[in-house]
Design goal:
The complex is a heterodimer.
Chain A lengths: L4 E3 L8 E7 L5 H6 L7 E7 L6 E5 L2 E5 L1 H4 L2 E5 L2
Antiparallel strand pairs in A: 1-6, 2-3, 2-6, 3-4, 4-5
Chain B lengths: L21 E8 L5 H9 L16 E7 L2 E7 L11 H12 L4 E7 L3 H14 L3 E6 L1 H6 L2 E3 L1 H8 L3 E3 L8 H11 L24 H15 E3 L6 H9 L5 H44 L4 H39 L1 H13 L6 H12 L1 H6 L6 H10 L6 H15 L3 H25 L10 E4 L7 H35 L10 H13 L8 H7 L7 H11 L6 H11 L2 H13 L4 H11 L2 H28 L4
Parallel strand pairs in B: 1-3, 1-4, 4-5, 5-7
Antiparallel strand pairs in B: 2-3, 6-8
Helix pairs in contact in B: 3-7, 5-7, 9-10, 10-15, 10-17, 11-12, 14-16, 14-24, 15-16, 15-22, 16-22, 17-20, 19-20, 20-21, 22-24, 23-24
The chains are: A mainly beta, B alpha/beta.
Chain lengths: 79, 627
């Protein structure tokens, strides 16, 4: 959990990270209900063919989020 | 449109009184955990089932019997939490807190325990009498997951029953567990699950509950072998940067192509059957000395009219819905939403809007209801643009008319029409989000389910549902509509074709259709088809000069091909595809928006766009010298 916190939407596909903080945003409640809470390990599975949204593997399920909304989730990227 | 009144979409049951020997059991769980499948297995119901999150759009009820007692089963919408962010979450929470349920069955996806446990932990805090069902156990076994159900029951302090609802495995154990935990009703008793007026106890924060969910899942789930990665390999193909769009188009084209050409021989056979029946009935009535008006109404109005509907609708409906069910069950629909989201964004809408449009190709009423997977601005846009997607009631006649006018190129013309309807949806969405719905926040967060293997049982269910729904609609809607149209076309008695009621209406409407390039009689037929779009073929037979005889589809075909130019036909098809939702859809729009303003817009917007696009098509056709 070292390093600077990055917005989730900026993570390249294939990268792993751990959620550090979830900022207030239009979808933050929903994302937290789906398991994106601080301390959660996740991986960006892929970006959609047009670069957006992203598909995130979290707690054994896949969640698709627009990058602008995913940016409310700050993560520490794993090396 | 056939099948609009599918029982799966019935509202809450009117009977709220519970008798002492009845048990009310609520089903609650994350979206796409097989709740609806379990509901159907328990009650023999026909809730809509498919592999994408968010199909159960309002709570529905059914009944089954358990050891001489009546079990009322309430299927709540799929939710991720009892927090009130979403309408579904509010519906489920309010229901549980009202205390009407004697027991709560928490349906859990065994392949995805940790995420599902969050809602389970919340529910256990609010509601005392729960049974946890580990559904999709067969899928969990296939992917090498071992779950210690006794350990899970200890951790949760609630009985845990493994189940494979789609195969009916584990049902007796579930019923026994429900009977054991359910509140025993002894005469008059205050509901104990949350007294009326009971305020919601504060739920622990998500972070805390998820830590507990993770702990439990780590202790009770063992991965016996690594996942096979088949889903991932498939997704790599389906969402590939270059292949995604061609693949999606190819699948949709294949569905429409198979519907069109697979249905043709069946339609011809059914048409011949009804023609034979009509001939026989006509001869029989003449021999029996029946009066001309009776023979006309029964044979030319009824048998031929209903025959036209059934022979066009039945094969296309059956094939389309079976193919759609296969795609839906397999889990392709959310992939389409994922791939399409970026393209929908400039129009002010999102990927899940596509799902409601695809649903609308079946019928606009479930299409309108399915918009509950969206929220706020996106939901309103999806409701208002839903009827621009041709439902099966329109697709059937459109396919038939395309084949009639354009022969083997009919598939291409059909594709062009569908592109026009997509353009209309996007254009309307853009206009709405730039005007009346400007400035509202919008979001896209969606769970992507794993692929699942479609079952034969589902195919058979879909097939029989569609056949019955089509026949039911043909009888209840098409019969009165056809008879009314026949009367308009034949009375006042003895009048010349132009002087009948239909003739006079046609005379007035043809002037309005002229600037749009609509052939004579076309607009009148569209008006006749307002109660149910699929009667348009029968309506055309009457309004295009075959008025009194309605002598069967071959005469109509020959007449239309001779009287209409290809451009005229295409213009009519464009108008017919877009012009207005059917009367049942008006009701659905009003029920969903609870607003006269939005209902009027939901009816008026398609009409305005139909006029705009039809005029555009007509002008473009003339400019290209196709007139």
């Amino acid at each position: 959990m070292t390093g600077i916190a990055l917005p989730l939407g900026s993570l390249a596909s294939g990268r792993r990270a751990v959620v550090v903080q979830v900022l207030d945003g239009p979808s933050s409640d929903r994302m937290m209900d789906m398991g994106l809470v601080p301390g959660t390990p996740l991986a960006v599975v892929r970006r959609a063919p047009l670069g957006d949204p992203i598909q995130v593997a979290v707690r054994g399920s896949w969640v698709c989020i627009r990058r602008s909304e995913a940016d409310a989730v700050l993560v520490a990227a794993a090396p | 449109m056939t099948g609009c009144a599918a029982p799966g979409y019935a509202g809450p049951a009117g009977r709220e009184q519970t008798r002492a020997d009845e048990l009310t059991v609520a089903l609650c769980g994350n979206p796409n955990t097989g709740k609806s499948t379990l509901f159907n297995t328990l009650t023999g119901g026909r809730a809509h089932v498919g592999n994408w999150p968010g199909k159960t759009v309002e709570r529905q009820e059914g009944v089954c019997r358990l050891a001489g007692r009546v079990l009322r089963v309430v299927d709540l919408p799929g939710i991720y939490s009892l927090n009130p962010w979403s309408e579904e979450g509010r519906i489920a929470r309010d229901y549980l807190l009202a205390g009407a349920a004697d027991a709560l069955v928490l349906v859990v996806d065994a392949t995805n325990l940790e995420r599902n446990l969050y809602l389970v932990l919340q529910s256990l805090l609010l509601f005392p009498r729960c049974v946890v069902v580990l559904n999709l156990m067969d899928a969990a076994r296939r992917s090498g997951l071992m779950i210690d159900t006794e350990g899970l029951a200890c951790e949760l302090g609630a009985p845990v029953v493994p189940l494979a609802a789609a195969r009916g495995e584990g049902l007796p154990a579930l019923l026994a567990a429900v009977a054991a935990v359910a509140r025993q009703r002894t005469g008059v008793e205050a509901p104990a699950g949350g007294e009326p007026g009971h305020t919601l106890p504060a739920l622990p924060p998500a972070t805390e509950l998820y830590v507990r969910a993770h702990d439990i899942a780590t202790r009770v789930v063992a991965q016996r072998r690594p996942p096979d990665g088949l889903d991932e390999r498939f997704d790599r193909l389906v969402t590939n940067r270059w292949l995604a769009f061609p693949l999606m188009l190819a699948v949709l084209a294949a569905v429409f192509w198979l519907t069109m050409f697979g249905a043709a021989p069946l339609s011809a056979a059914l048409g011949a059957l009804f023609a034979g029946l009509a001939g026989w009935a006509r001869a029989w009535m003449a021999a029996a000395g029946a009066p001309g008006w009776l023979a006309g109404a029964l044979v030319d109005g009824l048998i031929v009219g209903v025959g036209a509907v059934v022979s066009v609708m039945l094969p296309t409906m059956a094939i389309f819905f079976v193919l759609f069910a296969l795609i839906e069950d397999a889990g392709f629909i959310p992939r389409i939403a994922f791939v399409m989201d970026r393209m929908m964004r400039p129009a002010g809408t999102e990927g899940k809007h596509c799902l409601t449009c695809l649903m609308a190709y079946g019928c606009n009423i479930p299409g309108v209801l399915s918009t509950r997977i969206l929220s706020g601005k996106h939901r309103l846009i999806a409701i208002l643009t839903n009827a621009l997607n041709p439902c099966n009631g329109r697709l059937g006649p459109m396919l038939a008319l395309c084949q009639l006018f354009f022969g083997h190129r009919g598939a291409l013309v059909m594709a062009a029409l569908l592109l026009i309807s997509i353009a209309a949806v996007l254009f309307a969405s853009f206009v709405l989000s730039a005007t009346v719905l400007r400035g509202e926040a919008a979001s896209f967060v969606m769970e992507m389910p794993p692929y699942r293997r479609p079952t034969w049982r589902r195919v058979v269910t879909v097939l029989s549902d569609r056949v019955w729904a089509t026949l039911w609609r043909a009888t209840v809607v098409a019969v009165p509509a056809t008879l009314l149209i026949w009367m308009l076309a034949n009375y006042p008695a003895g009048a010349s074709p132009d002087a009948t009621w239909a003739g006079r209406l046609s005379g007035a409407l043809d002037h309005m259709g002229l600037p749009l390039g609509l052939p004579p009689g076309a607009l009148t037929a569209a008006v006749f088809a307002l109660p149910a779009k699929e009667v348009v073929v029968a309506a055309l037979a009457i309004t295009s000069g075959l008025g009194r005889t309605l002598a069967g589809s071959s005469a109509l075909d020959a007449h239309l091909v001779a009287a209409w130019t290809p451009l005229g036909a295409f213009t009519f098809l464009t108008f017919y595809m877009l012009y207005m939702p059917c009367l049942y859809t008006w009701v659905a729009i009003h029920r969903e928006t609870r607003s006269l303003k939005w209902t009027v817009l939901g009816v008026g917007l398609p009409l305005a766009l139909a006029v705009l696009f039809t005029a555009g098509v007509h002008r473009a056709g003339l400019a290209l010298g196709l007139g």
